[in-house]
Design goal:
39% of the residues lie in helices and 15% in strands. By secondary structure, the chain is an alpha/beta fold. It is globular.
Amino acid sequence: DLYSLPKHISYFKALEDPIDGVKIAFSPDLGYATVDPEVEEIVRKAAFKLEKFGEVEEVKIKVPNLEMELTTKVVLETVTMFGKDLEEWKKVAYPAYLGFLAMAESLTYKEYIKIEERKRELWRALKPIFVKYDFLVTPTVAVPPFEIGNIRVSEIAGKPVTPIGWMPFTYPFNFTSQPAASVPAGFTKDGLPVGMQIVGRHFNDVSVLKISKAYQDVAPWQDKKPKIQ
């Protein structure tokens, strides 16, 4: 049930208990994402380090891509939030965002309401994964970090992508209200950091924190920092 609440627990105390015997699914692309090959390989190697705590299996899954629904939601909520001040805000907004806001002129409440049904479709597609596995692991984003000042990349691995095609992995679990954490997976050959996302079952925040801590215990990163220019 997406709308129930769990009992209160102490997360710090829960982290004292070890985690073992878990089943972990690794998906490099959720069945729809275009991913930088170097990012994919770094995260794959990181994911299989979790075998110290149970079974890891690379899986092929296919879930609906709610990228358009995310865009619709963000655009309509932003325009609504600014209300009568929207035109003034546009004057100082980052130029790249103006194209998104222009979409609001063609969107109505009907598109917003349809998002709820698409969220249910996504949940129905993901549910079997979390019946069989305790965790789903993916890259955090599909590309290495890009230059400051940019808000997107135009292509990944030589393929054109949408303005938010570089971030296909995190918003699905915002839509399904599942706990997720990003942990350091490693560095590219250029020294840029790559993240690994660990997603848990509904309200299983404790287990996500425990497996994240356990991973960082066997793959410490605090002494490794990218060069800053």
